[in-house]
Write a structure and sequence with these properties.
Length: 126
């Protein structure tokens, strides 16, 4: 019934800052960008490998609790070839990255960093 992930929607507080982060730093490709005047909102469609991100802006969106473990979406996770290379890349933009951990069940290396609004993003080594 459910075939694959289609998209992930993210609401940001600073559209230009988040657009820069997801396109220029994380490398997602812009598919479409529209300004919805009636909602004073941008919608930016971004292409990932096999999925899309939708980045929305709204005037003064309410803050969402993400830490500690609040109910709801916990984090985004992306598979990468080499966690150490990703860490080096992210820190070159002064993005703080947590220490690398090993998943006790899979044995895979992983770490976390946050987007401009504090959304936790995990990278997991292939």
């Amino acid at each position: 019934m459910f075939q694959q992930l289609h998209h992930i929607a993210i609401i940001c507080t600073n559209y230009e800052h988040s657009k820069h982060f997801y396109t220029n730093i994380l490398g997602f490709t812009v598919i479409n960008e529209v300004y919805r005047k009636d909602r004073d909102s941008y919608k930016l469609d971004l292409q990932g490998e096999g999925f899309q991100l939708e980045l929305f802006s709204f005037p003064q969106p309410p803050k969402r609790v993400s830490r500690p473990e609040a109910a709801g979406l916990r984090h985004l996770a992306f598979q990468v070839e080499n966690v150490d290379q990703v860490i080096e890349y992210l820190t070159s933009f002064s993005i703080m990255v947590e220490d690398v951990r090993i998943d006790p069940f899979t044995g895979k290396r992983f770490t976390f960093f946050s987007d401009p609004d504090g959304l936790p993003i995990e990278v997991v080594e292939r």
